[in-house]
Amino acid sequence: MTINNFNFAGKKAIVRVDFNVPLNEQGIITDDTRIRGALPTLKKILADGGALIIMSHMGKPKGKVKPSLSLGQIKDAVAAALGTPVQFAPDCAKAHDAAAALKQGEVLLLENLRFYPEEEGKPVGIEKDDPMYESAKKEMKERQKEFAKTLASYADCYVNDAFGTAHRKHASTAVIADYFDADHKMLGLLMEKEVQAVDNILSNIKHPFTAIMGGSKVSTKIGIIENLMDKVDNLILCGGMTYTFAKAQGGKIGNSICEDDKLELALDIIKQAKQKGVNLVLGTDCVAADNFSNDANTQVVDAKNIPDGWEGMDAGPETRKLFADAIKGAKTILWNGPAGVFEFEAFTGGSKAIAEAIADATAEGAYSLIGGGDSVACINKFGMADKVSYISTGGGALLEAIEGKVLPGVAAIKQ
Ligand code: AMP
Known about the structure:
Blueprint: E1 12-16, H1 33-48, E2 51-55, H2 75-82, E3 87-89, H3 96-100, E4 107-110, H4 117-120, H5 133-152, E5 157-160, E6 185-187, H6 189-203, E7 209-213, H7 222-228, E8 234-237, H8 242-248, E9 252-253, H9 263-276, E10 279-282, E11 285-289, E12 298-302, E13 305-306, E14 311-315, H10 317-327, E15 332-336, H11 349-363, E16 367-370, H12 373-381, E17 390-391, H13 396-402, H14 408-414
Parallel strand pairs: 1-2, 1-5, 2-4, 3-4, 5-6, 7-8, 7-15, 8-10, 9-13, 15-16, 16-17
Antiparallel strand pairs: 11-12, 11-14
Helix pairs in contact: 8-9, 10-11
The chain binds adenosine monophosphate.
């Protein structure tokens, strides 16, 4: 079933959204992108004449009730975004009565699903090497099914619009789908858009294809780097992983971050790129700092010859030009991970150069997809969100989808 073909009139819909929004110390939302992202789906259900039960996780309470991660804090913001009052169920597993009493056009927000360990389905308080672990895991899987069944019992149909958690097989993202038949479960509009965006990158590639992978570590991106190697023409590797590559090639990297156990891997990536004819672009110079702070002293140095006591914090001017050249003229662009410690104003230059080159290429007709919290934060910070083709709400989910993995949240609906 698809959401546009389903008439929600007189129906109760339970919708998994990703309302894992950042809050400040006063519990005020600092970025409501995720709430805005789910609005088309939520509004469609209400406009049809349905009743809404909204469920989400927030943060990592690890199966315990943590008031600082209560979704009660965002109830009013959700109500304001929807333009209608929102009721709150303070215990997501004991919301039968509140759900049963919901009338057409009414909205119920459930408390943080992850206050229950059943949501993630991982056994708590037992280590993997414990002989009892396997049986604890089995027991937890049974409890997870019961939890999912309880959530399912609140509604007539299930909608998954939480792309950010689609790569997890959790009670609310996948297991719950077993309790609805194919005509009563569907992806939300945001999910449909995300799946389409990945499809544009994977099955509709127009060349040249330039992928830009940044961030702090090569180890967390290796799956996607290897997968992209068969598809891209240009592969830019930037950010903290630059220095693992520099050291692997015999460079001097001072205090720069480095994964010493990934030096062989870095050399292997260089070799693979050569074999596959991929233009691998690594930084040649960098902005180095004498400490990890915004007001550190800085100098531009050779990325393979960083003085002792200094660390690479951003791409240097020559590198920025190399990156821009590899982006210019591209017809497909994927960007995940910043080129420097962009949280500090002094080290945003490399990421900004990438964002500008992507915006220019997009204006020339490229399809550009930006994903992962940090690159999205960069694009927003530079005020360039409307100059790229698509900004994904997914980090891990996006990377896994582009690696070609089937996302459990999507599979649970489609099978
Ligand atoms: P990731 O979570 O792996 O995508 O990495 C994102 C983080 O990488 C951001 O918080 C950046 O500050 C960080 N990062 C980027 N470049 C560097 C660098 N040269 N040194 C240390 N951290 C970096």
